[in-house]
Amino acid sequence: MTAVQASALVSGPGYVEATRNGSAGFDVEGVRRQFPILAEAPYAKPLVYLDSAATSQKPHAVIDAISGFYAKDNANVHRGVHYLSERATEAYEGARAKAQGFLNAAHTQEIVFTRGTTESINLVAQTYAKTHLGVDDEVLITAMEHHSNIVPWQMICTERGARLRVAPIDDAGELLLDELDALVGPRTKLVAVTHVSNVLGTINPIRRIVDIAHARGARVLVDGAQAAPHLNVDVAALGCDFYALSGHKMYGPTGIGVLYGRRELLEEMPPYQGGGDMIASVSFESTVYNKVPYKFEAGTPDLAGAVGLGAAIDFLDGLRHEALAAHEHDVLAYGIEALSEVPGLQLIGTARAKAGVISFLVDGVHPHDIGTILDREGIAVRTGHHCAQPLMSRLGVAATVRASLGCYNTRQDIDALVAGLNAVRETFR
Ligand SMILES: Cc1ncc(COP(=O)(O)O)c(C=O)c1O
Q1: I want to staple 266 with a disulfide (CB 3.0 to 4.6 A). Which of 261, 284, 334, 377 is the partner?
Q2: Cis omega before residue 293 (within 30°)?
Q3: Which tens digit of pLDDT belongs to each residue from 349-390?
Q4: Predicted structure pTM score
Q5: What's the chain's Rg over C-alpha atoms?
Q6: Rounded mean pLDDT of the chain?
């Protein structure tokens, strides 16, 4: 476990103490001022935004970078010789270098821009898995995956005659590592696992999973959608083969994401889509593909999106990771403790290592009713299956309420949520 993962631990004897200690050294009010949307007042109530796992809000720096790109730099990239095209190319490739630094990838060629985590996973399924899966081979996922890390594997397994296997979790929402270990066999070609669960908040022990998989010759893809905003992601330290993330969950724009892939794997993989920019030369008889990562970036990319993602990475870097992790840990621990005291409330997901997410149920009240009543109080939470229906089945619930945190959340937001839940209980008494 890395130092950052350890700092995200919220259960066990340490967590009450952490609650009392607060999060000195993190100027959350200063951070909040950078997010214009936090001044909005739904139903004339102060906005309490607790839905960052669905999408985070955007700081001025990201909004300005996007409008600045369109106002000053906009042109198509790579093929132009003119001034603006060179500026746009520099901005786009600059964002790639920022993503490389953010993930601690060895080369910029290992950073493929995609539309987001979903597209990154589909890319690996339709290229790497398509060429490596044979009849009766296996892809191993876990019981806590988002549909994005289930359906692409189901599709490719069906196509190739391969099998999808599922590593189980315990009732707290932790992976059963021994069982996962036993499921990685000679037929396992790929293990695809989420770094942080979007429903449970569980932080998975990726390095250990990578060691298990690599020892049996399987590759590992990590779904980092919920980890990138909270953890210090280091693909070199994790040792994974692929890492997928979405810009919009880490304070960047929608429509842009990253697939990190080891260079030697990306080089051997066939392209994902055909079109402009992914080629070196084309004739009617045949095509020579471009080098990586361009081989995987057919067509005009989301240039402004990449620039916005670069600005989001700068924003996150500027928060200083240790201080941000301590702050988020404090609010999460405070939230878990405060919600545990709400009568009739059941926490869903009590893993020892958690980040960013608190899911719960309230006795006798449907999650959608809770979400609707909280909304009228200006509190934005998400209710439903959170794109994880198999996990809901495993937990024996149809839906949960999910409060999810970002860098701008405070203990006061948790207090508002608790007050809102008390109002819910009054309504349903
Ligand atoms: C764990 C996880 N994986 C994948 C995704 C899909 O991300 P996107 O819709 O940005 O592609 C999400 C989105 O909620 C997620 O939480």
Answers
A1: 261
A2: yes
A3: 999 999 999 999 999 999 999 999 999 999 999 999 999 999
A4: 0.94
A5: 22
A6: 94
Amino acid at 271: P
145: tokens are 């995956």
CA of 176 from ligand 1 middle (Å) equals 23
CA–CA separation, 59 and 209 (whole Å): 35
Beta bridge partners of 288: 281
Phi, psi of 381 (to 5 degrees): -125, 170
**HSE toward the beta carbon, residue 278, CA cutoff 13 A:** 16
Q: Which two tokens mark 20?
A: 């009392």
* H or E element at residue 237: helix 235-238
pLDDT for 24: 66
Instruction: State the DSSP code for 110.
Output: G
The residues annotated as belonging to the active site are: 387
The answer to whether 401 and 386 are in contact (CB under 8 A) is no
Distance CA 126, CA 173 (A): 30
Q: 54-78, pLDDT tens digit by residue?
A: 999 999 999 999 999 999 999 999 8
- Ligand 1 atom nearest 117 alpha carbon: 11
Of the candidates 60, 53, 64, 67, the one whose C-alpha atom is nearest the C-alpha of residue 35 is: 60
Residue pointed to by tokens 């080629």? 279
**Residues 299 and 77 sit within 8 Å (Cβ to Cβ):** no
- Given a contact cutoff of 8 angstroms between Cβ atoms, the answer to whether 15 and 338 are in contact is no
Contact 384, 368 (CB under 8 A): yes
User: Quick one: how far is CA 61 from the chain centroid?
Assistant: 21
How far apart CA 361 and CA 336 sit, in angstroms, is 13
Residue-range domains of the chain with CATH: 3-58+320-427 (3.90.1150.10), 62-317 (3.40.640.10)
Nearest C-alpha neighbor of 197 from the set 217, 221, 214, 173: 173
**Ligand 1 atom with least separation from CA of 223:** 3
Give the list of residues 6+ apart from residue 412 with CB closer than 8 angstroms, or none.
none
DSSP at 73: I
Please name the amino acid found at residue 384.
G
